[in-house]
Amino acid sequence: xxxxxxxxxxxxxxxxxxxxxxxxxxxxxxxxxxxxxxxxxxxxxxxxxxxxxxxxxxxxxxxxxxxxxxxxxxxxxxxxxxxxxxxxxxxxxxxxxxxxxxxxxxxxxxxxxxxxxxxxxxxxxxxxxxxxxxxxxxxxxxxxxxxxxxxxxxxxxxxxxxxxxxxxxxxxxxxxxxxxxxxxxxxxxxxxxxx
Length: 195
Ligand SMILES: CC(C)(COP(=O)(O)OP(=O)(O)OC[C@H]1O[C@@H](n2cnc3c(N)ncnc32)[C@H](O)[C@@H]1OP(=O)(O)O)[C@@H](O)C(=O)NCCC(=O)NCCS
Hints:
By secondary structure, the protein is of the alpha+beta class. The protein has a domain at 4-139: Aminopeptidase (3-Layer(aba) Sandwich), CATH 3.40.630. Helices cover 32% and strands 35% of the residues. The chain has helices at 30-37, 40-43, 55-71, 118-133, 148-156, 185-192, and strands at 4-5, 11-12, 15-16, 20-24, 75-81, 86-97, 102-109, 138-144, 160-171, 174-184. An 8-stranded mixed β-sheet has the order 3-4-5-6-7-8-10-9, with helices on both faces. The longest helix is centred in the N-terminal third of the chain and has 17 residues, at 55-71. The protein binds coenzyme A (COA). Residues 42, 45-46, 107-109, 114-120, 141, 143, 147-150, 152-153, 156 line the site of coenzyme A (COA). The site of coenzyme A (COA) has 22 residues, from β7, α4, β8 and α5. Residues 20-186 form the N-acetyltransferase domain. Pfam families: Acetyltransf_3 (PF13302).
């Protein structure tokens, strides 16, 4: 599969991991996204993913993702598993602030793929894209408390805890705290090329 070229000429690479490929989403991915995301446990600690999650939601999301990608505002990569070539999750860089070279990472994976190191592979892939291609300086994540799996993933990928935003999200009628984590470019470089 070839790299995708945006309206402004940026080359969005296909990012290859051991078991996965991160690539731009296509119309034909709607069914796989819907099947994996129509699960309360997956969307439980996410900000805007509705439940139930319909095929219409997936189609609309793909259109938005393609539009953002082409304008270089946000990037949403599908996480394709090499074994079946199906999309099993999404990982994104959003709120890209080119002036301060900051962006927010977000991700989800279908439940049956949890606990196999796949999210970590995807996260390292998108960090590489953010720091190498977009020349970012800091990438951060906001995790609703108590999303233990996401906290563990970030810690294992080298993110540092920055602070707790108290009751900053209203989720299913409850106020939840958000935990902010980040990784700086220099920390990422040390991590991938340990001295
Ligand atoms: C968060 C999420 C993507 C993690 O996916 P995953 O593929 O299971 O994560 P990985 O297998 O790559 O785990 C990475 C590390 O975190 C650890 N980890 C993951 N889930 C864990 C859990 N529930 N408890 C303890 N440790 C956990 C793993 O042991 C692994 O550590 P290692 O590198 O030492 O082996 C997945 O749980 C998910 O999609 N959740 C729903 C969506 C969501 O909440 N997104 C985040 C919004 S901020």
